[in-house]
What we know:
Strand order of the largest sheet: 6-7-9-10
Strand content: 15-25%
Helix content: 40-55%
Structural class: alpha+beta
Number of helices: 4
Shape: rod-shaped
Amino acid sequence: MTDLDMSNFTVANIDHFKCTILNETWQFFFPHLKDVPSETLCSPYWDGASCLPPTLTGRTAVFPCMTMYNNKFFDTSFNASRSCLASGEWSSLTDYSSCKELCIEVDQWNQTTKYIDCDLLDADQGADTEISVHVYFIGYIISLIALLGAVFIFLSFREMRCLRHKIHIGLFFTLILSDMSWIFTALIQSLIQTDHYQSVIQIWCASQIVLRYFHLTTFFWMFLEG
């Protein structure tokens, strides 16, 4: 006889295995229900994600959310529920609306990982992204103001209109157009979540082409500078 090897079992497999055992031994764990007629009781049941405990007819079973389902982890501090019908059968579906998925958060400093609510992780990432966009906006606006000032100075003094300075002006203009294209693209991207997102996406794609074009032209003028 060989020992049972459960090393390859997932958390969901182990939960299912436990539920199979509970089907045969639930009277031991729920002694207050062992003398209840079977027709007034819904027996333990594996619904594919959680093990439903024995429940009296007309009652609703409330139990912790599953640990794992479809290779995703969930927060067991929240509860799921399923009703036991008067006929002694479970209702058609289990209510998992309160269950929250857990995502892996990596701590780069301590080289550790932990599971947190995915909604909180998405909110943190969204906040970080929003901060980055604001920093970019400020940087591009400052750059745009400085470039416009430089072009104004070059065009204001006639003695600064030699060929070398004209090349500088050309580079400045391409940087200005590149800055304006980035700002316009970022503003368009913020409108993608609106009701007219399809037309907005088309404009956004066109703005990306223009942005890349002006970005490449800056390298051309840098080549002339060299």
